[in-house]
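Protein folding task:
====================
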Amino acid sequence: MKNNPFLTVFLLVCIEVLLIKYLDYIDFRMRMGEGLPLAIACFSIPGISLFLTLFIGESKYKKGFKYFTFFIIGISILAFIALSYLAALGRAYQH
């Protein structure tokens, strides 16, 4: 399990989910743009994954993690589009 980037990304996803739940629980409001917290939530893990891909030395996980990173980026783009659409739809129904 030493130097396994898959475990690193999995643990980062768990930490991010717990942080989002905690911030929602304490009703934390940011004074940034409306889409910025959603973008940070969707693209922080793929950003870290890209960073790990660039700086992983020669490892038996390098090729698999590269494909995993592309998969995570694709999923995060789709999630961002879907969540942005649902948020806009929710704001439209509030008015």
About this structure: The first helix runs from residue 5 to 25.
